[in-house]
């Protein structure tokens, strides 16, 4: 897994397990529900089958019972008829009454050939005449001798009767009737509808329907369906296949489960019994299963969520620590490396650039006001930088006082430069902190991913290199990385290695000191020398001290190199002493970093002691810019040095923009006027020069004035005229080796004795 993917703690890591659990639960729940539904359907089918069985056998029993009863009635009617037939005079009403009572027939009517009742048991209907369409009329016209009717409703009494008729030769006939209301009532219980109604009393049955084989509703517990056609597909199929069919459907706006069972007996298809089950119970049960499932899912989810949440919090903290800067909250260097690498290898953006922003005076602020103050400044810087974050711009805290901006999909170099200027402009106004407003000196380097094979490491390295190429005196400068810088870096590495060798090996000849004489104008005598460091790297040639001193400063070698310079100066002074020049002073250039080191004074005094040099033989040259960069601190340090009897010379005076009046407060002894003001003597007329003013101001504050870089007689004359104390420059001598310096002194001495 790519580190970059987890920097923003991907929610997928939580969503995926949750989705899996949710899916599993859903599948199991679905399976449970389906199993339960299937089980319930099977049960309902089973019950429907049992109901149908009961219904079928009841139907058959009912029809059997009806047949038997009807047969018995018929038999009885036949016996009565035969008894009547045995009568000699069938019109004898007494006899008929007797037969009626003996055989317990309810009605006996004697009709004349015209169909009028001439005798009736208990004389009830005497005079009634059969009319057209009446069953009696139908028998009369049929010509049959004997007929037994099916049970029917009597047209006069509205009661049910089973009638039989016996015809006499003269056309008169006798009607015998048995009252069948009780039998009918009994038989009624065995009708399709009644049986259906009884069965429909079962729990959860919404409706029962009997459908005839010609697809008509013969009976239904919901009466409104009786007589309706029932041509639904399911019924057609059930009839055709003779198999049970089930279906979920809606009946009277209620959801039902319908089981269609064929009603068959002895191979004969009577129709279909459709059982409509209510689904309310099964729905409730399914809801119960779902509720249980959801409950289980919730419990498991809450547990899982708690575990994951704690894991998430821990991970977030780890990620925060690993990929974010605690102080500013910005993504850190590790994140930057990953982010860049991701863009360079997998990114879709064609152009990727890296900007590195550095605060020049941050170290000094840190040292002067403390780390808490420095931290406040860094936080403010981060806040300001947030103004430029955007879709294709991401800000990082690289390290210390350096910030990085990764820019993607930009147009060209000009756009990058504009953005760089925008970044720098954020710091053009002083930053406000709890301790007041603070001016920051910023610089910015830019590296483009021109070479498609670039790695994040290389881009960061190049950005740092481009940054180091900026002259620190130049404020708000932008430097684009160029390949030449890399060669420069290699050269610097080489120089660094040589310097390290020289520091370790005291006698390494690649490093030496040159000594440039200084002449006192009042006595016209050599007063001393300035020690100037020299480095001659094999295969490269002589390196300017300006270059190798700054390399030594950047790579933290300056302190050890400075001590080496003191040793060599000590040796030179010893040599001069041996040759009788014990009054000579030698000035040594000291870097600000050396000076501010805690152990500087003690180390320096030790060297003086070991070389048996008295402090007044040495002068320290501190450049004006070093003093001004951190005035209070450096000036205090200079005071301590001065107290030890060591002279201090302010080098390159006039280039650091310190006011002349400030000279009064500086803990110095000598003002070394920069070559710039000496060169001006040749270029301008005397009235336009301020060189004399510097000399007189130095004198005013009790300081000695030294002119450096004196090359011409004109300059000498001017300096003599305005009482400059000491001169140094090619006019007198170029810097000399230790040996040459002694020869120079000897020659001077010789010349003097010659005069
Ligand atoms: P600086 O201390 O101002 O040294 C004077 C520079 O001016 C020397 O250059 C010297 O060779 C040069 N110079 C002297 N007279 C003339 C002249 O008449 N005409 C011209 N054109 N130049 C003249 P150098 O030796 O290249 O040193 C340059 C700077 O390097 C020094 O400026 C000093 O700041 C630094 N430096 C040299 N040696 C050391 C050292 O041992 N320690 C430290 N910290 N810095 C050093
Ligand atoms: Mg100097
Ligand atoms: Mg100088």
Automatic annotation (TrEMBL):
Outline the extent of the GGDEF domain: 350-483
- Indicate the transmembrane segments per the record: 12-30
Provide the alphabetized UniProt keywords.
Membrane, Transmembrane, Transmembrane helix
For the keyword Protein biosynthesis, the answer is no
User: What is a GO molecular function of this protein?
Assistant: cyclic-guanylate-specific phosphodiesterase activity
Q: Could you tell me which PROSITE patterns the record lists for this protein?
A: EAL, GGDEF
The chain positions of domain EAL read: 492-749
Pfam families found in the cross-reference section: EAL, GGDEF
* Name of the protein: Diguanylate cyclase (GGDEF) domain-containing protein
């Amino acid at each position: 897994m790519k580190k970059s993917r987890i920097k923003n703690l991907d929610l997928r890591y939580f969503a995926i397990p949750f989705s899996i659990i949710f899916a599993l639960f859903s599948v199991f729940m679905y399976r449970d529900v389906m199993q339960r539904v299937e089980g319930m359907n099977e049960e309902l089918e089973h019950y429907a089958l049992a109901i149908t069985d009961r219904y079928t056998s009841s139907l058959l029993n009912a029809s059997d019972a009806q047949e038997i009863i009807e047969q018995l009635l018929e038999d009885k009617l036949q016996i009565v008829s035969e008894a009547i037939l045995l009568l000699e005079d069938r019109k004898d009403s007494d006899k008929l009454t007797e037969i009626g009572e003996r055989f317990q027939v309810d009605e006996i009517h004697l009709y004349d050939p015209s169909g009028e009742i001439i005798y009736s048991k208990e004389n009830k209907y005497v005079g009634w005449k059969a009319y057209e369409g009446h069953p009696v009329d139908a028998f009369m016209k049929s010509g049959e001798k004997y007929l037994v009717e099916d049970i029917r409703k009597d047209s006069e009494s509205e009661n049910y009767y089973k009638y039989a008729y016996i015809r006499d030769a003269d056309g008169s006939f006798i009607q015998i009737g048995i009252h069948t209301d009780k039998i009918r009532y009994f038989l009624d219980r065995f009708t399709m509808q009644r049986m259906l109604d009884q069965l429909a009393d079962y729990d959860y049955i919404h409706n029962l329907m009997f459908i005839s084989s010609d697809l008509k509703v013969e009976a239904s517990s919901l009466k409104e369906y009786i007589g309706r056609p029932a041509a639904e597909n399911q019924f057609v199929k059930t009839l055709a296949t003779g198999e049970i069919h089930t279906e979920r459907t809606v009946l009277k706006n209620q959801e039902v489960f319908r089981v269609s069972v064929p009603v068959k007996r002895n191979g004969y298809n009577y129709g279909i019994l459709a059982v409509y089950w209510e689904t309310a119970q099964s729905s409730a049960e399914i809801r119960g299963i779902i509720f249980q499932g959801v409950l289980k899912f919730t419990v498991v989810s809450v547990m899982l969520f708690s575990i994951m949440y704690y894991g998430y919090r821990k991970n977030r903290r780890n990620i925060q620590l690993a990929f974010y800067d605690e102080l500013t909250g910005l993504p850190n260097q590790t994140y930057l490396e990953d982010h860049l690498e991701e863009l360079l290898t997998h990114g879709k953006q064609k152009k990727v650039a890296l900007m590195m922003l550095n605060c020049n005076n941050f170290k000094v602020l840190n040292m002067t006001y403390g780390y808490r103050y420095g931290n406040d400044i860094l936080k403010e810087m981060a806040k300001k930088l947030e103004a430029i974050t955007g879709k294709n711009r991401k800000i990082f805290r690289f390290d210390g006082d350096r910030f990085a901006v990764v820019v993607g999909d930009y147009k060209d170099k000009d756009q990058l430069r504009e953005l760089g200027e925008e970044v720098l402009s954020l710091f053009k106004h002083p930053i406000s902190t709890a301790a007041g407003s603070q001016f920051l000196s910023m610089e910015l380097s830019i590296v483009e991913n021109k070479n498609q094979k670039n790695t994040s490491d290389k881009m960061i390295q190049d950005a740092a290199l481009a940054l180091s190429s900026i002259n620190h005196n130049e404020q708000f400068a932008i430097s684009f990385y160029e390949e030449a810088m890399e060669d420069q870096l290699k050269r610097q590495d080489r120089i660094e290695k040589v310097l390290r060798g020289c520091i370790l090996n005291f006698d390494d000849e690649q490093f030496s000191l040159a000594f440039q004489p200084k002449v006192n104008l009042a006595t016209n005598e050599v007063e001393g020398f300035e020690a100037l460091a020299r480095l001659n790297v094999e295969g490269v040639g002589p390196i300017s001290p300006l270059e190798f001193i700054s390399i030594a400063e950047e790579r933290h070698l300056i302190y050890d190199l400075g001590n080496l310079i003191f040793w060599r100066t000590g040796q030179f002074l010893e040599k001069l002493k041996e040759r009788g020049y014990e009054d000579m002073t030698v000035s040594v250039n000291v870097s600000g970093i050396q000076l501010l080191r805690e152990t500087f004074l003690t180390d320096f005094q030790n060297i003086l002691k070991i070389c048996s040099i008295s402090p007044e033989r040495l002068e320290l040259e501190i450049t004006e810019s070093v003093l001004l960069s951190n005035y209070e601190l450096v000036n205090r340090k200079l005071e301590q040095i001065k107290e030890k009897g060591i002279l201090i010379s302010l080098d390159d005076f006039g280039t650091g923009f310190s006011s002349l009046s400030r000279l009064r407060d500086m803990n110095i002894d000598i003002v070394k006027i920069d070559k710039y003001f000496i060169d001006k003597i040749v270029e301008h007329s005397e009235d336009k020069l301020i060189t004399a003013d510097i000399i007189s101001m130095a004198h005013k504050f009790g300081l000695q004035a030294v002119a450096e870089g004196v090359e011409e007689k004109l300059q000498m004359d001017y300096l003599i005229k305005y009482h400059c104390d000491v001169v140094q420059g090619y006019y007198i001598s170029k810097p000399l080796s230790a040996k040459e310096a002694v020869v120079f002194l000897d020659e001077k001495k010789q010349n003097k004795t010659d005069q």
